[in-house]
């Protein structure tokens, strides 16, 4: 039995937030029914994004709605609040929350009290003060960004096909990706694959006309799959006429010209920024202990170090890796750990409420898989290295097993099956970004204008 009525606040609806709340509502089913426990999930989006599927969503292999999991359906015994936690005062156990309603009413943030706090806001893109990045850079962390990038790439091909200006054509067909981690390599691989296929439907475009560039500041890409597989990936990308520039940084992309640290310049309308993430800014607006890197200092039991009734996991938490050979090592901030940490975190909250001993999180990293496009991939699992079709198949099988809910598994599998039987979709729906533009123009108004849509990038 739970000692007393407990109000549990989960901040974030990503991997850790959703899986922790799911675990809690399963383990505390009777307590929830009797009103002894209340679980509130505050999240900026009413869905959880399965980020490993973003590259395939961008390539059109999976529908965007199947990459996300609706939280209200999955967490049917929790209170889901769509909003942002702006600050936390754990000393008095309150969180300041802004929602669409508070903005409409003109009210300040609403205070939510809690007894147990789960901090899982995740991370945000780590950017640098590079000239032009804010104006022209494209992120790749959300499903909206993935679909927007797909539309953008196809629109660049439309521009190149219809212009007579060789400078505009070359800039439209040059695609620069910054960051050689999972997000950058997989997004580049899938989109290059899609664009090469799409080119067959343009009478005056060939795959050889397009220039794809991967910029990585370190001396290797995909460090998670090992040095040998990283070198193999570089070789495979270069065989596809993709320029892989190691030990190179992006110095500027102002005026739609990507200027690199080695002196190369690429006039381009597409700069995709995937150069890492940083802790969510919310963590700095709490009274909880942080590491020098800005993450929550946690114990192996997933409690916030030196603080009662506060828990954390995932990207926001520095969790000791008890399986590491070197002391002081933290678990890597990736999905493999986040999902497993969420299960232990949920169980430990139940243990704490019932006065039981806590469990220690221990998971030895088993390896990684990465897709490089249709039927192409690399993998290192339990020390075994796979490449090509076997690695690509393992990538799909692994992530199909991990995507939440049977509903999503069935839909994704059905789409993969259909994509094997029919041709790719090559439609761009860029007008979705301004759905009222045509009606405003018909009604005598002025449609919204995006400077990035101009062929020369001028306003």
TrEMBL record:
KW Oxidoreductase (keyword) present: yes
Domain of life: Bacteria
Assigned keywords, A-Z: FAD, Flavoprotein, NAD, Oxidoreductase
Family annotation (InterPro entries): FAD/NAD-bd_sf (IPR036188), FAD/NAD-binding_dom (IPR023753), NDH-2 (IPR045024)
Biased composition (Basic and acidic residues): 447-459
SUPFAM superfamilies registered for this protein in UniProt: FAD/NAD(P)-binding domain
Single GO molecular function: NADH dehydrogenase activity
Pfam annotation, one family: Pyr_redox_2
Region of interest (Disordered), residue spans: 438-459
Record keyword NAD present: yes
Gene3D superfamilies per UniProt: 3.50.50.100
Domain FAD/NAD(P)-binding: 7-341
Family statement drawn from the similarity comment of this UniProt entry: Belongs to the NADH dehydrogenase family.
Name of the protein: NADH dehydrogenase
Species annotation: Streptomyces collinus (strain DSM 40733 / Tue 365)
């Amino acid at each position: 039995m739970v000692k007393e009525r407990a109000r549990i606040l989960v901040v974030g609806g990503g991997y850790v937030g959703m899986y922790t709340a799911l675990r809690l509502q399963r383990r505390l089913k009777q307590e929830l029914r009797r009103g002894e426990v209340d679980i509130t999930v505050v999240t900026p989006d009413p869905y959880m994004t399965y980020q490993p599927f973003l590259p395939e969503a961008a390539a059109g292999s999976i529908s965007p709605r199947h990459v996300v999991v609706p939280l209200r359906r999955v967490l049917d015994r929790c209170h889901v609040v769509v909003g942002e936690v702006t600050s936390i005062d754990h000393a008095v156990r309150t969180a300041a929350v802004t929602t669409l309603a508070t903005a409409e009413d003109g009210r300040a943030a609403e205070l939510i009290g809690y007894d147990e706090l789960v901090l899982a806001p995740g991370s945000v893109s780590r950017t640098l003060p590079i000239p032009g990045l804010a104006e022209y850079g494209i992120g790749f962390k959300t499903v909206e960004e993935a679909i927007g990038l797909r539309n953008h790439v196809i629109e660049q091909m439309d521009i190149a096909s219809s212009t007579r200006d060789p400078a505009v054509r070359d800039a439209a067909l040059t695609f620069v990706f910054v960051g050689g981690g999972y997000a950058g390599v997989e997004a580049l691989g899938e989109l290059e694959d899609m664009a090469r296929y799409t080119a067959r439907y343009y009478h005056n475009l060939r795959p050889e006309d397009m220039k794809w560039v991967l910029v990585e500041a370190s001396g290797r890409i995909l460090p998670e799959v090992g040095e040998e597989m990283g070198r193999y990936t570089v070789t495979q990308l270069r065989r596809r006429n993709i320029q892989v520039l190691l030990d190179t940084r992006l110095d500027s992309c102002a005026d739609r010209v990507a200027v690199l640290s080695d002196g190369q310049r690429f006039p381009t309308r597409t700069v995709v920024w995937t150069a890492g993430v940083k802790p969510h800014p919310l963590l700095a607006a709490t009274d909880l202990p942080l590491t020098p890197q800005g993450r929550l200092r946690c114990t192996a039991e997933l409690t916030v170090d030196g603080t009662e009734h506060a828990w954390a996991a995932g990207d926001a938490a520095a969790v000791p890796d008890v399986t590491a050979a070197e002391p002081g090592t933290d678990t890597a901030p990736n999905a493999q750990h986040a999902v497993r940490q969420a299960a232990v975190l949920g169980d430990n909250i139940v243990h704490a409420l019932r006065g039981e001993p806590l469990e220690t999180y221990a998971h030895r990293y088993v390896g990684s898989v990465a897709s490089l496009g249709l039927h192409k991939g690399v993998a290192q699992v339990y020390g075994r290295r796979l490449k090509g079709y076997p690695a690509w198949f393992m990538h799909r099988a692994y992530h199909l097993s991990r995507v939440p809910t049977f509903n999503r598994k069935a839909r994704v599998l059905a789409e993969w099956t259909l994509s094997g039987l029919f041709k790719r979709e090559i439609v761009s729906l860029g007008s979705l970004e301004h759905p009222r533009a045509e009606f405003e123009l018909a009604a005598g108004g002025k449609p919204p204008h995006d400077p990035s849509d101009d062929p020369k990038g001028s306003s």
